Amino acid sequence: MTPINDTRCTLGEGPLWHPERAEFFWFDILGCKLHSLAKTWEFDEMVSAAGWIDSTTLLIASETRLFVFDLETGHQRDLSPLEADMPHTRSNDGRADPQGGFWIGTMGKRAEKGGGAIWRWYRGELRKLFGDISISNAISFAPDGRSACFTDTVTQQVMRVSLDAQGWPAAPAECWLDLRDTAYKPDGAVFDAAGNFWLAQWGAGRVAAYAPNGDFLRAVSFPAAHTSCPAFGGPDLTDLYCTTAREGLAQPTPLDGATFCQRDAGKGLNEHRVILTP
Prior knowledge:
278 residues, four-stranded antiparallel sheet, 23 strands, 0% helix
């Protein structure tokens, strides 16, 4: 498997297939960059995840804020502070939800124990959903929009929480996928159209697919150890993209930090649009 281009990220994350632009984006968190195949944008702080608003604008999460970013002009407009009074934290994994909101996880810049949280921005309100998170990951939404998943990577448990009609948690989160008896560390994740859960596993060089009941289905291997987050894209949403990282590797290979695409891996769903207006 060959990378999609020559870019190598220190910490690749936040892959996003923009359905209106038919364009793929991803981040290098520690490099403070947003990439596409056509262009790279540099920022003055770490950026990690995005949701699409329309054909030219994204909602982007940085280490201190959520902001609207114009891909054509580069203009930035702040939406909300994000732990701006906590200089030891940054954003990490995030994804738009089916109701038009945006979930974003934070973590300590040194992965301090319990230093992060999971937040939801929805039509002008930013609300903390879960605290005491060390490494936020796997934010994803079942196809029917009635539940969300997330993980604190160090726990090796993927949690699932029921959502109400507006997309807010409607019950306590419960463990849905328990990997504590394995060597696998859950990282970014996405659901496919059949309700299967595709989970990047940090250090394992793979994205594993699990059935709606949590049964293991299969894994797609990638030639880089630190697989960080998957996303479906391409004209028929059957391309499985995966970001990777060089961070934490004593002797990274030439492919570590690359972004890959496995053709005909499954059938994905379009990423949800972020709705700005109340």
